[in-house]
Design a protein that fits this description.
Length: 324
């Protein structure tokens, strides 16, 4: 977590931050006019949704850098978005290398004295390829113990871990502002996400034990699989990023695995072009379906996945329907 390595910057920010007014308004950076209270800037839409809920409760301000549908692995900020980040009191980042296109911008924000919170670092991250068990004894002292590329950044697909993240965001905002309302709101949103976690489990209970095998567009479902009792039979794009490119041999081998294991569906990603998934499905044949899930981004405002809770409920529903 960057903040743990930047205690001096936190103290400076806390000293210069106004105590939140009880009736201060919440809103994103598109609204005109000055605002009172702490301003939080989140990078991804799942984190932005949770940050919005906490900030609205606490009477603060929020902005989400990435638009709906953006792939966090390759998103690059515009000059206006960078300017918004540089006005933040606290930046809420995913971390663990997820925001590859924002890495230098986040580093510069930290150098400029803006606290940057890497949430994935703080919610018991697990290594790629080691998703079958939890690491409760993992060292959370900071980035030093979390080699980017080794640890899986896709923690938000486990609602229980996002609940931990919400509480941590609220606590950090409370420390910076001196207003315990932020920590209270973080705890309130955290409880809502714990309830969401239970709802997701109930929905997924419909999937029989022998059907809990999934194929996805990239290696993003490690936390989901560990939390909800699923197994990955393979991924279309190798590695934990959407930017890699599979070989024709890779696709042929995965197609054979899908046939051999009788996997009925390939789950694609609404934030990524699904051309490779479609190619794989054609190679498998008519026995496999393609179902898009909300992986890297929440959905449009008029969709059932418009916020983080809706995203997780919709994914659970789609997975349960496809595999039941």
């Amino acid at each position: 977590m960057r903040l743990q390595r930047s205690a001096t910057l936190i103290s400076m920010a806390a000293a210069s931050t106004l105590v939140l007014a009880a009736c201060s308004s919440a809103g994103d950076s598109d609204d005109s006019g000055a605002k009172d209270g702490l301003t939080l800037v989140a990078t991804t839409t799942p984190l932005g949704s949770v940050t919005e809920q906490i900030a609205t409760c606490a009477g603060g301000n929020y902005t989400t850098l990435m638009p709906v549908g953006a792939d966090p692995h390759d998103f690059s900020a515009s000059s206006a978005q960078i300017a918004a980040m540089m006005k933040a009191d606290l930046v809420i980042a995913n971390g663990l290398g997820l925001e590859g296109g924002l890495a230098s911008t986040l580093d510069q924000a930290e150098l400029d004295g803006i606290p940057v919170m890497d949430v994935a670092d703080e919610v018991n991250p697990i290594p790629f390829g080691d998703h079958d068990h939890e690491h409760d004894d993992h060292d959370h002292a900071g980035h030093e113990g979390h080699d980017h590329g080794e640890f899986d950044p896709h923690f938000w697909l486990d609602a229980g871990r996002m609940a931990q993240g919400a509480e941590l965001i609220g606590a950090q905002a409370a420390e910076l502002s001196g207003d315990k309302k932020w920590s209270e709101c973080g705890a309130e949103v955290s409880q809502q996400l714990k309830d969401l976690d239970a709802q997701v489990r109930t929905t997924l209970d419909a999937v029989p034990a022998d059907k809990r095998v999934i194929v996805t567009d990239h290696d993003a479902f490690g936390y989901f699989n560990a939390a909800y009792g699923f197994e990955s039979a393979g991924v279309v794009v190798p590695g934990g990023s959407t930017e890699a490119e599979p070989s024709s041999q890779d696709l042929a081998a995965l197609a054979q695995t899908i046939k051999d294991r009788g996997v009925p569906v390939i789950f694609s990603n609404t934030a990524v072009n699904q051309g490779l998934v479609d190619s794989l499905a054609r190679e498998v044949g008519s026995d496999v379906a393609v179902v898009p899930l909300y992986v890297g981004s929440t959905g449009p405002e008029d969709s059932p996945a418009a916020d983080y809770q809706g995203m997780m409920r919709e994914n659970a529903r789609l997975i349960a329907e496809a595999l039941s």
